[in-house]
């Protein structure tokens, strides 16, 4: 399959370059050259009109310009107040869809500032940083020059820094290092739930959709002799293997590339699926959004046939979708019952992240009521 190409006119000559977008965004149709002489108002206007800006100036000035455009893309206080008042008249589900539309529009505008990347991930601009290590981690070895949005490129660099630093997991007594495109366990409340729930057995556990491998590692730390962790994302598989090796648990955790369940049965099957039933618009959103609750339904439909007698399935799920009107509690209970399962117990915890108490958040009403639950399920 041929890589998409970006086309533009520069100094009266037709030019093309390979286009790269992790979210699958097509190359912009209109491209204009831009440098240090361009002001933020002009850049914002052009971006809103759908004209991309291929940067030829100083790299650090490009970052400053992107920040200035981002400020202009934020709703004005009076406009935001009108939107908040209007949102009070719509359903929670409609408010959520309006919020996502607004976020998508903002992402489209900020994605219009483009950066050329040369061989071996060099940037042919003044004061450009060395991003080669970050790009190799995110994209793999260089396959030649391309053009990418500055917003995505800065995300790659940020992910690299977070990967080096890692996230401290008190229950593990260690750090977990998330790779680019793999959701970081920054919301630690679900880890708390898994750390405290009584284990139904310690011989074998399955960790479905392992991501960084944090829950697989936690189960080993709690004394489970063997864990099989699965995921279908190549990035997640590489990330989980990296973390398990760092923790010295390779002899106890097997990592498999598969959709949902491995072969066999276990006394414990853990799953922390994406919490919101909506389509993902970017790589990282795949850890948050589960279209039509596909993973949730798949876990519940296959759980009973993968449990040993007396075994339990632990479903870790936020009720944010319920407060947003995207999925009902009745739907979840019906899915549990129709798949031959029963609820043994349920424990819950309030989120600790800052957005839960941010009254300026468009979804504050739902976020402030959110609870994350660990549903202990068994064959009926």
Model description:
By secondary structure, the chain is α/β, with parallel strands linked by helices. The chain has 2 domains: 5-161, no CATH class; 168-379, Vaccinia Virus protein VP39 (Rossmann fold, 3-Layer(aba) Sandwich), CATH 3.40.50.150. 36% of the residues lie in helices and 23% in strands. A 7-stranded mixed β-sheet has the order 11-10-9-12-13-15-14, sandwiched between helices. It has a 4-stranded mixed β-sheet with strand order 3-4-5-6. The chain has a two-stranded antiparallel sheet with strand order 1-2. Strand 9 (205-208), helix 8 and strand 10 form a beta-alpha-beta unit. Helix 1 (40-48) packs across helix 2 (59-73) and helix 5 (132-139) packs across helix 6. The chain is globular and about 75 Å long. It comes from Parazoarcus communis. Residues 204-318 form the Methyltransferase small domain. Keywords: Methyltransferase, S-adenosyl-L-methionine, Transferase.
